[in-house]
Design brief:
By secondary structure, this protein is an alpha+beta fold. It has 10 helices and 8 strands. The chain has an 8-stranded mixed beta sheet, with helices on both faces.
Amino acid sequence: MSSVSPLSSVSKNVRQRVTPEEWEVRVKLAAAYRLAALFKWTDHIYTHFSARVPGPEEHFLINAFGLLFDEITASNLVKVDIDGTIVDDPTGLGINYAGYVIHSAIHGARPDLQAVLHTHTRDGIAVSAQRDGLLPISQHSIGFSGRVAYHGYEGVALDLDERERLVADLGDKSVLILRNHGLLTAGISVEHAFQQLHGLERACNIQIAAQAAGNAELIFPPAEVVAKVEKQAEVFKSGDGPGVARHWNALIRQLERSDTEYKN
């Protein structure tokens, strides 16, 4: 006996009942989910991306709990307020509560950050489990020098009081490695947050690959070179430079060679 897909119940008039500004954010966030699926950054149904809804209300969008990343569309994202009340849930699936805890913490404390992306990739978790964390051994990782915060593992993020410690550990940064858990990036836009995640995932891939060589000694660039690259990478902190749009536009072209359904 076949079961009815939860996608079949999605309202077709979501676009008509939200503002044009919200719809634009929905489309970008759905694209981020589909890109993560394309790059194989998913952990089945268990991780989450979010984006703040434009407007005076403290609402944000997040995935319905039970949908795969390659099933996310602009219409089936769930709208929730900062207190956890679901405002609009087209699929009726609800949300992952751990996702709510993590994302509401950052959206509530950091109004400067519009999007929060969290992954459980193999290499990201592997780096998060290393005492020294992200090592300055590649151009990718050195670009994050001085920009990464760390949050100690407290178990599955189901306790609301963890939000205070998570926000305190993040501080004024927008890149967070969750120890024994995964990666998190945030940004002034979905595009900015995704650019940071793309670079951080690559940095972790490179670190694990380099360490896989066993006894081969790793080369750490001198401090003055690290400082130079750190200064060069300052443009990525703001998120409003032309490089963010250039990177995002290329990602969308890549995605749309095989998938345009995210815009529905």
